[in-house]
């Protein structure tokens, strides 16, 4: 069975929906489809809380937003991309407002902004503390007003079809029926998000399994900067649920077990009663998470059944402010931690939150594979470099989702044509392979969950906040072993209707690919920069490593790492200074 | 490949309204309109009886005195009370009232309904009992 | 407190079952565990064939709605200890066709949603270069509550009208229409009127109120619908009384 489109978007979150709308607006005659393994409203964009940054005030400039982003990235971001990003972010957020997004307002009706980590000026737009939720629902509902956008809801893309170095389409599995279909396309835009689920402890939803990264990687696109994994400093201890940075932006303090604001010991400034931008609790996420590890080593964290924690103190903010600016935070703490932040301290610890790395693209969202584009967390342009600033990710979805959509629309308008029989044959091969996965594996002896849990433990041990060569090499071996064991994984469910076990198997296969690329990239980068900290190479080494790591998949499944110099335009590498 | 039954549609029981307390209260509330209708008919009968002179009015009073009529009217009164209480309770949801730019709280709208009801009842009682 | 609890889960495999069949699983009873954690334990360790939807596990994505002891609940936000000593009965969400086990078909809602035009309609679009459409915090408060819907469908599962008449547009869709009707930036109320005022729109609602009772986000769809009944009725009277030009 085959369907045909000009542009297919994989993933229906913020980036995917924005890209599809951009395609429809750039060229209304193009046939565009969105294929998503979940209904779009379930995409992980929905969980984002804090806000979206864009220059808004008269006292703020694009250069300052750019500088904050570049320094926040520890100089690994491509400055041409950052300049384009900061210039387009305000327009994109305004476009969202025009589409109905309920941004929180000042009394006079203008958009309100707040402080956020690593930003020198207040430029983070927000919709209470459910910015991602409102952004996603606004985009989804707006997309409904473009009736020509076709949606494949709950279809899982299992492979991209590539012929002669060019993308020609994909194969997808309809979850409800088990039907497998080949969908041909001139251009494919991957917007499938990150891969936090390769770690045991993450803010990420269950669906963040790096599918798109693996699809692109297997199709010949390199993955870039995969070693840079962001730990968000404040996740709840058992569930990993995100407590937004906005809690600190509104004035929250981080205390160790002695009630001491420990961040002052880590060159992040001196404590003051109200938040100071780019200082203390409003420092960048990598430095805050690293400080936690040091506190733990000094024995100054509190032990709980779910590991060591520090505490977030919001009591001095008062119930009124919390209910106005942080209502969701209060709800989450109450429901999932049985704690009311108005009167009690909230236990928190660093949790994996975001992938700075991803599919390598240029500033228009194009990957080196012809016809293949990527945008959002799945992609690495790179604007986030070695560490992302909070509230840069949501505008990134919009800016690069739109760019990729426009670029793909132009490409599809100029290319296209008939589909070769080689491509259709590839599609049939994939159908057969999936049939085998579904009906075979009857004598498997490993549980999918066990392999997954061990992979996650391997990643936390080998590629956590602090790494070293030995642990990384050990992790690489463990992953190789896990991949072999994966071949013997058992599948209990052989039915065709909504077989989530088959999907879990396919997702695990993607996660193993992605995990290996993270470890390999981390092993090769012998320096410390941003979120990648090597105990055996503690200094930043601009001479050798002011470059992105690019990992290409070799035919035997392992990766080959090379380097691509960072694009520097206006800001030569400097020291990252916070709190001074 | 084995045949597939397709999606399963759970049949709705005839007694669906007994499954939850809220559904039962809802059905009783809906039923109360029947008794409200009876009171309207009864009122029309009263007006017609008065219009027909003191004999027809006396016949009306005699009929009203019968046991079954008394029971019917008492039960109807209880249902009308249920009708009033449940609808008053729902009124604030449908009416968003603004006074001087601020939204009047639900409690106030509810209180307003009961106050008006008490006032009208007092007026009627004064007319009837003096 | 015991350290185990039994889950009685409704299984439905269309290839072999004519109707749902209950299957029992014993899972650890941990004080932090939501019902969802119990289901994950079953799938990961006891029975990989159990199918259900979930994603965010923090009550914001709307995927995990199911019937727990007869009530529609988000299983990620409902805790096992609240049902101790159990057993806990877990079935698919009511009033939707069951595709498999605990997974229901919500395509009916997905096709109804666009009919209420849940997007901002403007008589006159301004370019973004001119800045934002102004909206005061008070104007935002007018519709904010109705914008909180996570599309979890618990309201449809609780609504007896929808149970009996699946053509009813339904609570969430009507509340979303109101979210836009009441947004000060929107000019589309007239465009939405036909669908909202139809027999299967607000007038099919008999104000049972269960939708608002089960809504995990306090959207109060019942309130949104009753308010619209008032709006629609007032509009109908105006149309009757006012000459065409003045409407």
What does this protein look like?
- The complex is a heterotrimer of chains A (580), B (130) and C (247).
- Chain A has helices at residues 14-26, 62-72, 79-98, 131-144, 211-218, 246-249, 285-297, 318-325, 327-337, 393-414, 421-439, 448-462, 469-487, 500-524, 542-545, and strands at 2-10, 32-36, 52-53, 113-114, 124-125, 149-153, 155-163, 166-174, 180-190, 223-224, 229-235, 253-255, 302-304, 307-313, 346-355, 358-360, 372-374, 379-380, 466-467, 533-534, 547-553, 559-565.
- Chain A is of the alpha/beta class and 580 residues long.
- The N and C termini of chain A lie far apart (63 Å).
- Chain B has 2 domains: 16-79, 3 helical TM bundles of succinate and fumarate reductases (Up-down Bundle), CATH 1.20.1300; 95-130, no CATH class.
- Chain B starts with 20 loop residues before the first helix and ends with a helix.
- The model of chain B has no long low-confidence stretch (mean pLDDT 89).
- Chain B is flat.
- The relative contact order of chain B is 0.07.
- Chain B has a two-stranded antiparallel sheet with strand order 1-2.
- The longest helix of chain B is centred in the N-terminal third of the chain and has 31 residues, at 21-51.
- Chain C is an alpha+beta fold.
- Chain C folds into 2 domains: 4-104, Ubiquitin-like (UB roll) (Roll), CATH 3.10.20; 107-246, Orthogonal Bundle (Fumarate Reductase Iron-sulfur Protein, Chain B, domain 2), CATH 1.10.1060.10.
- In chain C, strands 2-1-5-3-4 form a 5-stranded mixed sheet. Chain C has a two-stranded antiparallel ribbon with strand order 6-7.
- The radius of gyration of chain C is 21 Å and the shape is elongated.
- Chain C starts with a strand and ends in a 6-residue tail after the last helix.
- The chains are: A alpha/beta (580), B mainly alpha (130), C alpha+beta (247).
- Chains in contact: A-C, B-C.
């Amino acid at each position: 069975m085959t369907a045909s489109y000009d542009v297919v978007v994989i993933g229906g979150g913020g980036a995917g929906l924005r890209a599809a709308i951009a395609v429809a607006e750039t060229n209304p005659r193009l046939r565009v489809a969105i294929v998503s393994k979940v209904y779009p409203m379930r995409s992980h964009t929905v969980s984002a809380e804090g806000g979206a940054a864009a220059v808004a005030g008269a006292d703020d400039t694009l250069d300052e937003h750019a500088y904050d982003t570049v320094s926040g990235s520890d100089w690994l971001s491509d400055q041409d991309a950052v300049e384009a990003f900061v210039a387009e972010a305000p327009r994109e957020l305004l476009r969202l407002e025009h589409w109905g997004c309920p941004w929180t307002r000042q009394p006079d009706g203008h958009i309100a902004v707040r402080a956020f980590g690593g930003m020198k000026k207040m430029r983070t737009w927000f919709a209470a503390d459910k910015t991602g939720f409102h952004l996603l629902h606004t985009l989804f509902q707006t997309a409904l007003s473009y009736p020509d956008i076709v949606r494949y809801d709950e279809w899982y893309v299992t492979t991209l079809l590539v012929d002669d170095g060019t993308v020609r389409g994909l194969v997808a599995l309809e979850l409800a029926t088990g039907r497998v279909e080949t969908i041909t396309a001139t251009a494919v835009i991957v917007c499938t998000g990150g891969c936090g689920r390769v770690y045991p402890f993450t803010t990420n939803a269950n669906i963040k399994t790096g599918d798109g990264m693996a699809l692109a990687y297997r199709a010949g696109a390199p993955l870039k900067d995969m070693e840079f994994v962001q730990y968000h400093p404040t996740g709840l201890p058992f569930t990993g649920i995100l407590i937004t940075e906005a809690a600190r932006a509104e004035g929250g303090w981080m205390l160790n077990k002695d009630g001491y604001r420990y961040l002052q010991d880590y060159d992040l400034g001196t404590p003051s009663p109200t938040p100071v931008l780019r200082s203390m609790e409003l420092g960048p996420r990598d430095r805050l998470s690293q400080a936690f590890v040091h506190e733990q080593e000094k024995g100054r964290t509190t032990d709980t059944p779910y590991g060591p924690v520090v505490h977030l103190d919001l009591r001095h903010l008062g119930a009124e402010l919390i209910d106005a600016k942080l209502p969701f935070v209060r709800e989450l703490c109450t429901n999932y931690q049985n704690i009311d932040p108005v009167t009690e301290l909230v236990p928190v610890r660093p949790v994996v939150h975001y992938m700075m790395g991803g599919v390598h693209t240029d500033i228009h969202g194009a990957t080196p594979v012809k016809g293949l584009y990527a945008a959002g967390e799945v992609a690495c342009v790179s604007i986030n470099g070695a560490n992302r600033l909070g509230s840069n990710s949501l505008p990134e979805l919009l800016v690069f989702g739109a760019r990729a959509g426009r670029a793909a629309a132009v490409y599809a308008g100029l290319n296209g044509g008939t589909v070769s029989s080689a491509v259709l044959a590839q599609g049939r091969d994939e159908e057969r392979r999936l049939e085998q996965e579904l009906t075979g594996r009857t004598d498997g002896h490993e549980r999918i969950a066990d392999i997954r849990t061990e992979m996650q433990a391997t990643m936390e041990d080998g590629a956590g906040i602090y790494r070293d060569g030995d642990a990384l090499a050990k992790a690489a071996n463990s992953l190789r072993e896990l991949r072999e064991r994966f071949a013997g994984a058992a599948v209990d469910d052989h039915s065709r209707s909504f077989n989530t076990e088959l999907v879990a198997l396919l997702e695990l296969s993607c996660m193993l690919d992605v995990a290996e690329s993270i470890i390999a990239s981390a092993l090769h980068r012998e320096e410390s920069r941003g979120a990648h900290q090597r105990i055996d190479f503690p200094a930043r080494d601009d001479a050798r490593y002011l470059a992105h790591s690019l990992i290409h998949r070799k035919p035997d499944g392992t990766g080959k790492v090379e380097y691509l110099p960072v694009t520097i335009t206006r800001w030569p590498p400097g020291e990252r200074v916070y709190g001074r | 490949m084995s045949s597939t039954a397709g999606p399963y549609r759970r049949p709705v029981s005839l007694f669906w309204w007994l499954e939850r307390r809220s559904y039962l209260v809802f059905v009783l509330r809906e039923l109360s309109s029947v008794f409200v209708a009876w009171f309207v008919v009864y009122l029309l009968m009263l007006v017609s009886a008065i219009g027909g002179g003191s004999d027809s009015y006396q016949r009306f009073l005699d009929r009203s005195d019968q046991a079954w009529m008394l029971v019917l009217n008492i039960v109807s009164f209880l249902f009308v009370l249920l009708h009033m209480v449940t609808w008053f309770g729902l009124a604030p949801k449908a009416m968003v009232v603004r006074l001087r730019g601020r939204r009047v709280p639900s409690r106030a709208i509810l209180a307003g309904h009961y106050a008006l009801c008490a006032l009208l009842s007092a007026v009627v009682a004064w007319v009837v009992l003096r | 407190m015991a350290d185990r609890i039994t889950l009685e889960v409704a299984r439905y495999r269309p290839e072999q079952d004519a109707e749902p069949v209950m299957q029992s699983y014993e899972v650890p009873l941990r004080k932090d565990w939501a019902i969802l954690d119990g289901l994950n334990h079953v799938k990961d360790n006891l029975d990989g064939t159990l199918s259900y939807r979930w994603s965010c596990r923090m009550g914001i994505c709307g995927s995990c709605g199911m019937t727990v002891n007869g009530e529609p609940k988000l299983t990620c936000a409902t805790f096992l200890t609240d049902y101790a000593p159990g057993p806990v009965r877990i079935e698919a969400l009511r009033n939707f066709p069951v595709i498999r086990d605990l997974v229901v078909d919500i395509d009916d809602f997905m096709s109804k949603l666009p009919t209420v035009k849940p997007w901002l309609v403007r008589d006159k679009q301004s370019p973004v270069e001119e800045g934002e459409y102004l909206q005061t915090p008070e104007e935002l408060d007018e519709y904010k509550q109705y914008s909180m819907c996570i599309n979890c469908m618990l309201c449809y599962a609780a609504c007896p009208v929808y149970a009996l008449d699946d053509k009813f547009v339904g609570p969430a869709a009507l509340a979303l229409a109101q979210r836009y009707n009441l947004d000060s930036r929107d000019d589309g109320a007239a465009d939405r009127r036909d669908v909202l005022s139809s027999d299967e729109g607000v007038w099919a609602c008999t104000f049972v109120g269960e939708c608002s009772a089960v809504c995990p986000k306090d959207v109060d769809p019942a309130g949104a619908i009753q308010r619209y009944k008032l709006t629609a009725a007032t509009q109908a009277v105006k149309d009757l009384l006012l000459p065409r030009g003045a409407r």
